[in-house]
Amino acid sequence: QEELVESGGGLVQAGGSLRLSCTMSTKGRYSLSWFRQAPGEEREFVAGISRGGESTRYSDAVKGRFTISRDNAGITQFLQMNGLKPEDTAIYYCAATSSYAVTSRPFDYSSWGRGTQVTVSS
Length: 122
Fold this sequence. Notes:
Blueprint: E1 4-7, E2 10-13, E3 18-24, E4 31-37, E5 44-49, E6 56-58, E7 66-70, E8 76-81, E9 90-97, E10 111-112, E11 116-121
Parallel strand pairs: 2-11
Antiparallel strand pairs: 1-3, 3-8, 4-5, 4-9, 5-6, 7-8, 9-10, 9-11
């Protein structure tokens, strides 16, 4: 398993932006994704980028507002979140899977970060 460390969460007003980062402990061949979990809710897929970085996938809830990317070394991934809404409030988790394509199923991911809190005020 890889160690993943998220950063960049915080408190922002509706309509604002945040940029999350996720750094892996080693360079590996993984597809990387972000999930989020609000209180009392199940963990849900937000966005993912394939192992080669050539394809991305987004949930309908964030499509057009969030952008996922990764650095050339394949160690750090980013989630740029624009147009934030109160319903985006959740703990955001970074996750890694050896699958070549992005999958939205949490049980496909073998490594998880501890999460970073994102709070959007109205």
